[in-house]
Amino acid sequence: MKKRISIFIISLCLLLTACGQEPAQSTNAEQPKPLDVNLQGPEALQKNESGIYKAEITYGDEKVKNDDVEMIEFEIKKKDGEGKGKGKMLKPKQIGEGVYEIQTSFSEPGTYTVQSHVSAKGTHNMPLITVTVK
User: Does residue 26 surpass a pLDDT of 60?
Assistant: First the structure.
């Protein structure tokens, strides 16, 4: 009799343990990839000289399709204590699949930042370049 009760209790424990387990996660679920923004442009310019700043956007190893770009802007801000807060926001021009650019100049000498704000595929990235204007 004790043997039957022991087998019953062990069976009941195994059954309850199996019912309480979470189902295994699917290994086929797509893992998030990093949103990368390669921001390029001159780091030194003369006053009133024009410079082109370009952002190439990739998600993992693939260029982001323009339809997947939710938002892109370039922010230009003087670092020398002036213009605290938001800088001047510019909408770039699309020059290819996942490639955007602006052309700008700086009217005063100083140190500036050119920062791209990119949202795509539910992710945001904001790389910047420091520009010295003489």
Answer: no
Residues whose CB is less than 8 angstroms from the CB of residue 133 and which lie 6 or more positions away in sequence, other chains included: 44, 45, 46, 47, 106, 108, 109, 110, 111, 112
Spell out the domains of the chain, with CATH numbers in brackets.
35-133 (2.60.40.1930)
pTM, 2 dp:
0.74
What distance in Å separates the CA atoms of residue 11 and residue 5, rounded to the nearest whole number?
10
> Amino acid identity of 39?
L
What does the block give as tokens for 23?
A: 């189902």
Task: Spell out the residues 6+ positions from residue 8 whose beta carbon is closer than 8 angstroms to its own.
Answer: none
Length reported for the chain: 134
